Amino acid sequence: MVSFLHTADWQIGMKASQVPTVAETVRKARLTAAEQLMRIASQREVDFVLIAGDLFENNLVHNEAAHRVTEALSACSPIPVYVLPGNHDPLTEDSIYNRSAFKDYLPPNVHILRTFEPVAPVPGVMLLPAPVMSKESFDDPTTQFRIPPEMGEDSIIIGIAHGSLRIPGKFQENDFPIALDAAKRLGLDYLALGHWHSFYVHDDERTVYAGTHEPTGFDEQRKGTVAHVTIEARGSLPKIERLDTGTLSWQTLKCDVSGDPAHVVSHIKHEVSKVENPSSTLLRLELKGHAQSDDLQWLEDLEDWLKIRLLYIEIDKTQFVTRPIGKRLSKLAAGNPFLQSIISDLVDIAYALGRPIEDLPEDLANILGSDSQIIDDRLQDDLDRWGIQSEDVEEALRTLASIAEEVLS
Ligand SMILES: [Mn+2]
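^ thats the input. predicted complex w/ manganese (II) ion below
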């Protein structure tokens, strides 16, 4: 029997520039979660740890980060740790794995998988590595596995690679595409993958993404994970246990703000009160709809309330408009010929589409004059050709209103 941890995509040194005020906290969390993961390795007394690529954000991260990582990896010593270079930290000339932290100072239990040569982490187990040598590739990394001909029938065979499974609609041809039947075709007992940040077990129950140990952004709402895998013997189905390792929680709350602001606020407060660990939660609040009035004091107050409760709050207002668009825009456009001309074009388009925008033309007619109802044949042709719909114009006006408000008010 063999027991090991499978992890990937630590992306140490990640800039976290989308959350500038807490970027340092986010960076530190990736190390804290890594340390937690190494403790699991020791506690569970696994035979070895596999890191399936993208241990680092890129090959340019600070030396200090490199040393911190090797220090963290040495914590589970003497349990061996195998590190596969991924597309973020490929084995190129300037690879981070060529620095002294990974040469002269490498802890004895840490092994960088630099070649395609099979490795035996423990007797009876054969590890087939496919280190990544470039940022992108059209080749399936698993076709590079070298299966030794003399390998005993009893050896448990584990492949380790970094890339995207060829699940229709979920991969790109230049993103290290991996055949869905690779494990079966090559006779692997387990295929440890990295690159996708969510925990995923394929239908064959042998091809697995462990997911990142700590989420990297708002689009990864799941907790960070690691896979603890045990395989009884050659040919038996692996037992895959998913463990949580994440320390920060990235959440998105979508909210329609069309109603009474008091109700909107109480709804958001209620939702936020359900958040388990607010001080380690980053929240993106996505507002959409038309607000009832131009007075947004309630939103400023709400933002302050959220700020002191949560680690980080981001309010996405790109789909949020104060009603009416026309009134707001006309106020901003008065005395701004550039903005007026953009609005005029959009109003022309709205007319050409045969569906003037609700509450827009009347308000804007005052600043634009009335000639915007003349429809140009060429404009009509262009709209047909580009497939522009009246919703697109409304969307453009909303975006314009948001930008204009940012810039002009
Ligand atoms: Mn990757």
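The pocket of manganese (II) ion is lined by residues 53-54, 86-88, 162, 195 (CB under 6 Å).
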